[in-house]
Amino acid sequence: MCTSLSLGALDGSKFLARTMDFAFELNGQPTFLPKEYQWISSFDKKTYTTEYAIMGTGAKYGSNYMVADGFNEYGLSAAELYFSHAAKYDEEPTDGKINLVAEEFILWALGNNKSIEDLQKNLNEIRLIESNSGVMGQNQPLHFIFSDATGATYILEPQGNGLVLQEDKVGVMTNTPDYNWHKTNLSNYLGASTTNFGAKKFGDEEIIPLGQNGTFRLPGGYTAVDRFVRTAFIREATETPKDSKQAVNTILHMLDSVTIPRGVNIKEDGEASYTQYQTVLDLTNRIMYFVPYGNRKVYATKMTDELIKNQKEPKEYPISLDQEFEALN
C-alpha cells in the first residue's frame, strides 16, 4: 500500500512524492549512491555499475543498497508501489538482456537513464524475472511511477506484455488495480466539488445545507481505490504552490490525507501496515525531503555538485525516529 503523486510549482520546480505504506519494517533512510556504484544482481550474481549518482530512500541488504524511491543527478525520479495479484514477470531469463528481480529495477533505472525519454529507449534491455532470489526472499509484486525534470510522469506496470511506459496524465498512482482501471473509476466521482450545494426543496420543505458538503462523494477509506480518488481530487483542487519551499509544505498536506496510522490497517497475519515514511523529491533543486513515521520533523538532503564529484562511497544520513519538539517557553 502506497500513494504517489507528481506536482509542479509556479517557479517551474518539479516534484515526485510518495507515502511508503508497508508492514515489513524497511528501515529506509536518506541515502546517497555515487556514480559508478557497483551492485550485484541477486538473480544471476552479475555485477552492474551505475553511470549516475542517486539520492533516495535506501537500506542495505547484504552487499547491496536497495532504493525504494529517489532521483538521480539529472532529475529522473522513481518510486515503487505494491501491485499485488497483478504484477506478471518473465518466467525465464533472456540471454543478452539484463535480467533483474523487481526490487532492483530502480537501481538500474535511475543509475543509467537521464530522463523518461532515455528510459523509453533503454527499457528493451531489461527483463524482470519471477524469482524468489531477491533480498526479501520472495519476489515483490511492484509497479513503478517515474517523473523527470520536465515534469513528465509515467507509469510502468509489468503485466505480462513486457515493460511499457504509459503516461500518467492524472499525476497520481496507488496500488492494485492498474492505472487504467483507476483512471476509469474517476468518472464515478465527477460530482465531488470544492464548492457547496445550495438549499433544495423536498415537497414544500426547503432543506438547507448544514456545512461544507461538496466533497461528500469522496471516499474516506485507505484502500488503493479510495486513496487514488482522494489524492486525484485534492491534487487538482489545491492551490498551485508559488515556489519550491511552499510546494514541499503543500505536498506534505496532500500526503497527510492518505497517511495510514499504525493499527488502522491490519493484515491477515496480524501485522500492521502503516505509512513508514513520506518523501518529497524536488527534481529541480535535487533535494530529498523525508518524514519518518515516528518523527514529524522534515529532513532534507541535497545532491550538490560537490557531493557528486567528491563522494565515492555510499553515504547514509541518519535520522531520529523519536518525535522532536521545539519549545516556545
Describe what this molecule looks like in 3D.
- The protein is α+β, with helices and mostly antiparallel strands and 329 residues long.
- It has a single domain (2-190, 231-316), classed as Penicillin V Acylase, Chain A (4-Layer Sandwich).
- It is built from six helices and 20 strands.
- The protein has helices spanning 105-112, 116-122, 179-185, 224-237, 244-256, 305-310; strands spanning 2-8, 14-22, 29-33, 38-40, 47-49, 54-61, 64-72, 77-82, 98-100, 126-128, 142-147, 153-156, 165-167, 172-173, 200-202, 205-207, 274-282, 287-292, 299-302, 315-316.
- Strand 7 and strand 8 (77-82) form a beta hairpin.
- The mean pLDDT is 95.
Please supply descriptive tags for the structure shown above.
single chain; 329 residues; alpha+beta; Penicillin V Acylase, Chain A; eight-stranded antiparallel sheet; six-stranded antiparallel sheet; globular
What number is the mean pLDDT? Answer: 95
CATH-assigned homologous superfamily: Penicillin V Acylase, Chain A
What radius of gyration results from the CA coordinates? 21 Å
Strand order in space, largest sheet? 13-12-11-8-7-6-3-20
Roughly how much helix do the residues carry, as a percent range? Answer: 10-25%
Structural class category: alpha+beta
Shape: globular
The total domain count is 1
> And the CATH topology?
Penicillin V Acylase, Chain A
- The number of helical elements comes to 6
**Helix and strand succession?**
EEEEEEEEEHHEEEEEHEEHHEEEHE
Low-confidence stretches: none
Structure summary, number of beta strands:
20
